[in-house]
Amino acid sequence: MGILPHMKNLNLLNNPLTSLGKAYKKLESTLGSMKFAVVIILVFAIALVYGTFMESYHGREFANKLVYKSWWFMGLQLFMFISILVATLNRLPAKKMLYGFYTLHAGLLILFAGSFLTYVTGVDGMLELMPKEPSNTVRVQEDQFVVGYPNGEVKIFTLPDGAFENEMNYEEPGLQIKKYLPFSKLNTVWRPSQGTPASSAVYTIYNENVAEQMIMSLHPESDFQSMQKLGPLSVHFMPETLYSCFTQKTESGFIVWNTEEDICYTAESENYEIKKTPTNNLFMIIPHKGEYLKFFPDFSPLPLNDDLTKRQDTPFRVFSKKLFEKKPNLFLFGDKTVFFHKRKGWLGREFTDKRPVSLPWMNFKLTLDSFRPNAYPAQVPSYSRPVQDQGEIIEGGIKAVLINFYGQDYWVRSDQPLALSNGDKQVRFQIKSREIKLPYQITLDRFKMDKNPGTNDPASYESFVSLLDGRTNTPASSHHVFMNNPLKYDDFTFYQSSYFQVGPNEYGSAFSVNYDPGRPIKYLGSILLVFGSTWHFALRRRKKRKFFEKESTIESQSEKS
């Protein structure tokens, strides 16, 4: 009787272990069950469909960040792996009738292992080649924020990999990194000009077939320029001071602009002597602070030194109006405009009562929408899902980082670097993709593009490249790369992806670069998957045939009896 209390105490001690064992058995049974596998596969399939739609409407990068490379998608694949593994282990020790099942599931597990190896150590990037310029730089889809200091120090920050706006909390003296937008669009805002008098304006040029809005500014901090190209038409936004000189008649066509005093005059009004070189090039000399500035306005508005280098340290600029008579040029001076008419010469017009000004090219008209002499336009990013059209991102393709530099906020954008200074300290900020350096160089020797008849649409394009590997003593090898004919070298595969224009009838080539160390493992897994499926199906069919044969034998024996 004295032993029984001790036995009860022992049972109490064993109860937690028993409960834990039961919980483990239940978890093992759940993870290895067909019901759990079906649920995981169904959720995985729905995620794939969702990712496909996201890639179709918002682009590959957005789909990768939102779905394919997200933590929850990786978690789904991990649960699928565990489910397959537990289902296999639950059917051990091995049975002959399940050999096909084991082979099939081994193929799935090996396939998952190969995919994981590719995800961790693989490379998927882009290589852009300019004509005749060797390159070994591959850009991968990993965003970095680069800060360059005047002493040569460079700090690189890996940006968050999510698809939505991310808060960042890095801070050092004078610099704070606050926010990262992986996808954004630009909104135009107007800011007051403080200490820098410079005008800005918005115009609309249109005819019956097309309309284009132009935002132009002279302010140095504006994101908009003072010159634009609209096909063959060049549009120049200039200080109002120059309007009177452009409308004056001059025999030489030379206009002198003193930027220091903000005045302009013609060469004839100041009696500047215009001379010719032995090669009949016109030039004029302006005395300034004890020296003589020599101008060749047909070549440059800046004065030239004796060695024909340009001087930037003088307030004088000289324009030749005759240079702007050969091609369409439109000059804008806030609420006034000047252009050259082939029959009537140089004409000046003012915008009054918002009435349009008729231009002498293709029935174009011009309106002044807004003129702001004390404000300038800036572009501020805001988060926006990217929009894809025919394989190209047309909106939301700009990445942006919000920083605070010595008490003032600035946006750093992926489409242009930003340089800021505080006194004598200048810091350069940039958003760029992580770069991988290959141990060999590839040069684009020739790019060929065939177009569809009667259009400018490319029918096909191909690249002729040479590859030079400095690790070997062999000469450069030549390769022909086109669709379905990639370049394979040193475990890397280079596919012809796209092209870009670098000049008139001159193109650069873009290759997608792939390094997949898990490919042999995935091939093995795929072979086992196919073989195992066939084997498993054959065994089940054989088992079913034997079952029906046995049933028919029993029935025939019953009938005889």
SSE blueprint:
Blueprint: H1 3-31, H2 34-58, H3 60-68, H4 71-89, H5 99-121, E1 123-129, E2 135-148, E3 154-158, E4 166-172, E5 175-192, E6 200-206, E7 211-217, E8 227-230, E9 233-237, H6 243-247, E10 254-258, E11 263-266, E12 274-276, E13 282-288, E14 291-295, E15 316-320, E16 329-332, E17 336-341, E18 345-350, E19 357-358, E20 365-372, E21 375-383, E22 387-389, E23 392-395, E24 398-405, E25 408-413, E26 418-422, E27 425-451, E28 458-469, E29 477-481, E30 487-489, E31 492-503, E32 506-515, H7 519-560
Helix pairs in contact: 2-3, 2-4, 4-5, 5-7
Plain-language structure description:
Strand 17 (336-341) and strand 18 (345-350) form a beta hairpin. This protein folds into 4 domains: 20-122 and 520-560, no CATH class; 123-137 and 437-515, no CATH class; 160-192 and 379-434, no CATH class; 200-373, no CATH class. It has 561 residues and is an alpha+beta fold. It is built from 7 helices and 32 strands. The model has no long low-confidence stretch (mean pLDDT 88).
